[in-house]
Design a protein that fits this description.
By secondary structure, the protein is mainly alpha-helical. The protein has a single domain, classed as Amino acid/polyamine transporter I. Helix content is 73%, strand content 0%.
């Protein structure tokens, strides 16, 4: 028996707001950082890796959209997995999302600090950014959407300049035709798949729309449109950025760069644009950080409601209508991670967790009744297989770390369930395994 009253979140977001939040999540620090490690893995076949990541992301998006329309509540795949497959499936998805995306939050904050902070002040600046945006989220989801819209404008301006510079570089390093026709054979398909797994880190932001399912108006209509709209816009931007970056720097130059998009404008001798790209990278990191904290907080809220996380995290603030305790817990955890982690390691670890999260989403989508399914079941099957393939080909350290953290989560649930059973002789609810 529960000892708290469930309070629903407020439905205040329309299609445009939801698209902005999703797009701000996908056009975050990843677009400024992820192409370098992906180019290291895929070589000249970077676009093949991007295409593979996009196909898996599209399958995941269709599964997420139709599940969110059927289950318009907070929690995303955690809620869908519980409803369609059972509590353990939901827990695996929720735990993977919360842990992986909290690490991603730290990566976004550190990326912001790398551009914006004086030398030696990166970690304190990153921690301050986490706290500041946590306070924005605590003021309400409409404030989150407004802030995301302003940040997205700055990011799109910076990326437009990067693309213009890249295509204007005269092909001094790698012609556009060579970029578009590079074959995977030069690096092998394993390298392409590994790069796709890393690139998936940048695609995963559309999940934020689904985690806000309890806060959008007319969710059956809004969520599918917002998920697919945000993903389509992000795909277009990524292709343009990838082609222009390879065109300007060459594959080797891109792979070796620590500031790839800044180096693109430098290659064109557009030194005046460097501060603009730096500001864009900082803004992108903040936008993704803002949306990430909102999404993680809502998933933690859903898990706490089902007692898969401490039940106190299920509280919703009576004035702002946000899960304030869950949001605060996310901020504290992210600040701690900022003090001990690094950006590149967080990308691989986050990809592992998010790919596992979407694997559960795709499996759940295969169980939907025909009346609830908006897309062919084969897309969910392809998405599930694709997620597993990308997951196991990630760098070994990311896979090992992901498995260990998943095992810790499973152990936590087993221990807490046994403790509750020992303290409460009444039978468990019928749907709890």
């Amino acid at each position: 028996m529960r000892h708290h009253v469930r309070v629903n979140l407020r439905r205040s977001l329309g299609v445009g707001d939801a698209i902005i939040i999703g797009l701000a999540s996908m056009l975050g620090a990843g677009v400024f950082a992820v192409f370098a490690p992906a180019a290291q893995a895929a070589g000249g076949a970077l676009l093949w890796a991007l295409a593979l990541a996009a196909v898996v992301a599209a399958c995941n998006a269709t599964s997420t959209a139709q599940l969110a329309a059927q289950h318009p509540t907070s929690g995303g795949t955690y809620a869908y997995g519980r409803a369609q497959l059972g509590p353990w499936w939901g827990f695996v998805a929720g735990w993977s999302f919360v842990v992986g995306k909290t690490a991603s939050t730290a990566a976004m904050a550190l990326t912001f600090a790398a551009y914006a902070a004086p030398t030696g002040w990166e970690r304190p600046t990153a921690a301050a950014a986490v706290v500041a945006l946590g306070l924005v989220n605590l003021r309400g989801i409409t404030r989150t959407a407004h802030a995301a819209r302003a940040i997205l404008v700055v990011v799109l301006v910076a990326l437009t300049v990067v693309v213009a510079a890249g295509f204007g570089a005269g092909g001094a390093h790698l012609g556009a035709e060579a970029v578009l026709t590079s074959e995977p054979d030069t690096v092998g398909w394993y390298g392409v798949v590994q790069a796709a797994g890393l690139l998936f880190f940048a695609f995963a932001g559309y999940a934020r729309v689904a985690t806000l399912g309890e806060e959008v108006r007319d969710p059956a209509r809004t969520i599918p449109r917002a998920v697919l709209g945000a993903l389509g816009a992000a795909m277009l931007v990524y292709v343009l950025v990838a082609v222009s970056a390879q065109h300007a720097l060459s594959t080797d130059g891109l792979a070796e760069s620590t500031e790839p998009l800044v180096d693109v404008v430098r290659a064109r001798a557009w030194d005046w644009a460097v501060p603009l790209v730096v500001v864009g990278a900082a803004a992108a990191s903040l936008g993704a950080l803002l949306a990430l904290q909102a999404g993680i907080g809502r998933t933690a809220l859903a898990m706490a409601r089902e007692r898969d996380l401490p039940v106190g995290l299920a509280a919703v603030h009576p004035t702002t209508g946000v899960p304030h305790r869950a949001e605060t817990a996310v901020v504290v955890a992210a600040v701690l991670l900022v003090l001990v982690t690094d950006v590149r390691g967080a990308i691989g670890f986050s990809s592992f967790g998010v790919l596992l999260y979407y694997f559960v989403a795709n499996v759940a989508a295969t169980t939907q009744a025909p009346a609830e399914r908006r897309f062919p079941r084969v897309l969910a099957v392809v998405g599930a297989v694709g997620c597993l393939a990308l997951c196991v080909t990630l760098p070994v350290g990311s896979v090992v770390g992901g498995v260990v953290v998943l095992a810790v989560g499973v152990l936590y649930r087993l221990v807490t369930r046994r403790a509750r059973a020992a303290g409460a002789p009444s039978p468990a609810r019928p749907h709890d395994d």
